[in-house]
Amino acid sequence: MATVRLKNIHKEFNGVKILKGIDLDVNDGEFCVFVGPSGCGKSTLLRIISGLEDATSGTIEIGEKDVTKSDPIDRGIAMVFQSYALYPHLTVRDNIGFGLSLAKRPKSEIKERVNAAAEMLQLESLLDRKPKDLSGGQRQRVAIGRAIVREPEVFLFDEPLSNLDAALRSKMRIELTELHATLNATMIYVTHDQIEAMTMADKIVVLNAGHIEQVGTPMELYHHPQTPFVAGFIGSPKMNLFEGAIAKEHNADLYGIRPEHLTLSPKEGKWKGVVKHIEQLGADAIVHIHVESLGMLVARADGDFSITAGSTIYATPQEGKEHLF
Amino acid sequence: MKRQQIINGVIALVIGVLIFVTPFIFIGLTAVKSAAEASQLGLSWPSEWLFWDNLVAVIQARNYMLLLAYFNSTVITVGAISLLVISAAMIGYVIQRRPSKWNGFIYALILAGLMIPPAVVPTIWLLKELHLFKTLHGMILIQVAYGLSFSVLLFRSFIASIPRDLDEAAIIDGAKPWQVFFKVILPLLKPVTVTVILVQSVTIFNDFTNPLYYLPGKDNVTVQLTLYNFQSQFSSQMNLLFMNILLVTIPPLIMFIFFNKQIVKGMTAGAVKG
Ligand SMILES: Nc1ncnc2c1ncn2[C@@H]1O[C@H](COP(=O)(O)OP(=O)(O)OP(=O)(O)O)[C@@H](O)[C@H]1O
Ligand SMILES: [Mg+2]
């Protein structure tokens, strides 16, 4: 198992700066998630760690060894692609064993290791099928099997669940977390889905436009976002952010309050507003309120909180839950 | 309306049969006639069927020249196709996957290969300099050169539909560049490869002019050249000439009839699903 250390990674494509100085330590056995909006450079950073892409400058160490100039195979990494990238002409067995057979391992060893990986992922009955005869979730498993069979020190995942439906995705989230616990390997996981980040990560790295905004545990990022970007990005629905009078009142440029930290009441409260729209989710309801002095305010209420669009409502921020920037 | 459509269809079919099938019937009928009957060059029914006699006569003509021609043509076709498929697939792969500043120049060369008609005299001069003139391997190289542009374009566009992730997954799995090509990409190229093999082998097998220019000499005769060589001898024996035509036409025809679907599939096939 291994640590991953990035020092001052820069990347340019045709003179356009994509990564602007990334410094990051991923500890041994950690589940580290890169999140950020589309195009912020998550995949590029992951590909630089994998060795598929060269950094313009900076160094990469994996397990205390400088691998900046190494080929992917010499880095002790395995990667799972968003598209799965299974070899269409090979059976599941040969897909999983491909790396081992390239490494000229003995046939009996390949068989044993492929079977072990298949068992861990419940793929035994599918070993002789071709990828085109598998469902999306099964393909995903094969792709993961291809990674674990090589017993890498670091696993790299690039949005591995984004092609699955919601139910399967949440199932695979749990399976991946369990896999991480079983293998105890270092994993780096790219996603733009903050739920995946919150639920799976030991450490979240929030990327924005080629630089790191903040690094921390999910709860650190939730409770103590250091920048407005992180405040807006982590948490769902998004944190309410206001400039102007309310921020001045607290001697700040920006005032933020999470939807779940607003108390709603039909009678009294700090801010009076009109309900514009209600998203009923069952367990809770997301209420969009227009407040004269603030603009649109989003609040989370209990599912059985009875309000109708157009009615007047009062919202009060909970003491000490505001974020100031 | 419906009735009109049927009538139109029948008319089209009749015209099609007249244009495409009549020549074959003519060849077939003439090939089995006696010399006297054949010299009338009509579509009449043969009064006696001399298929076997004519066949033996053609094969034995000029010291079994037709058999030698079949041998030469086969060597040229198989040799050229092997070289063509391997090199076109590799070239297509490299120019599709590794864009470089040379790509524009390479495309210009490929297009030039498609558009500019080959100049015979300088080519012969070059072949002579390389001691390849009048040799089968020289002829093979010529056929490869002529077929390369088209094949490269076919391979290139097919490879473009293979996701790059596959190459990268193989690299992560530890494949060297040549292993990525031979173990991952090449097996996926089967549909285009079949198309290139069929289209080019028919072209090369049927080629008349190039062997005529670049492969003179009695021992170097190819199948299509037998027609030319026999023409003077058989001018009084049209039945034999047409028997020869029949023998020469059949192999490519069979290829087309059987693999017609494959050819179209390979031309239009796209991304590998799954
Ligand atoms: N090979 C390349 N050539 C030129 N530009 C590239 C290349 N690869 C990526 N980029 C650019 O780099 C930026 C970051 O791309 P990257 O794929 O890392 O984004 P991402 O954070 O993974 O986004 P997403 O969530 O949409 O996958 C994008 O603006 C993209 O256009
Ligand atoms: Mg990406």
Automatic annotation (TrEMBL), chain A:
InterPro entries, alphabetized: AAA+_ATPase, ABC_transporter-like_ATP-bd, ABC_transporter-like_CS, ABC_transpr_MalK-like, ABC_transpr_MalK/UgpC-like, Mo/tungstate-bd_C_term_dom, NA-bd_OB-fold, P-loop_NTPase
NCBIfam families: PRK11650.1 (NF008653)
Organism of provenance: Marinomonas arctica
Gene3D superfamilies tied to this protein: 2.40.50.100, Nucleic acid-binding proteins (2.40.50.140), P-loop containing nucleotide triphosphate hydrolases (3.40.50.300)
Protein name (record): sn-glycerol-3-phosphate ABC transporter ATP-binding protein UgpC
PROSITE patterns hit by this protein: ABC_TRANSPORTER_1 (PS00211), ABC_TRANSPORTER_2 (PS50893)
Keywords: ATP-binding, Nucleotide-binding, Sugar transport, Transport
Record lineage: Bacteria, Pseudomonadati, Pseudomonadota, Gammaproteobacteria, Oceanospirillales
Residue ranges constituting the ABC transporter domain according to the UniProt record: 4-234
Database matches in Pfam families: ABC_tran, TOBE_2
From TrEMBL, chain B:
Example GO BP: transmembrane transport
Localization per Swiss-Prot or TrEMBL: Cell membrane
GO cellular component: plasma membrane
Topology with respect to the bilayer: Multi-pass membrane protein
Principal subcellular localization: membrane
Cross-referenced InterPro entries: MetI-like, MetI-like_sf
Occurrences of domain ABC transmembrane type-1 (ranges): 70-259
Annotated keywords: Cell membrane, Membrane, Transmembrane, Transmembrane helix, Transport
Transmembrane stretches, start-end: 7-32, 70-93, 105-127, 139-159, 180-205, 240-259
One Pfam family recorded for the sequence: BPD_transp_1
Superkingdom of this protein's organism: Bacteria
Family recorded in the similarity comment: Belongs to the binding-protein-dependent transport system permease family.
Protein's name in the database: Carbohydrate ABC transporter permease
Organism field: Marinomonas arctica
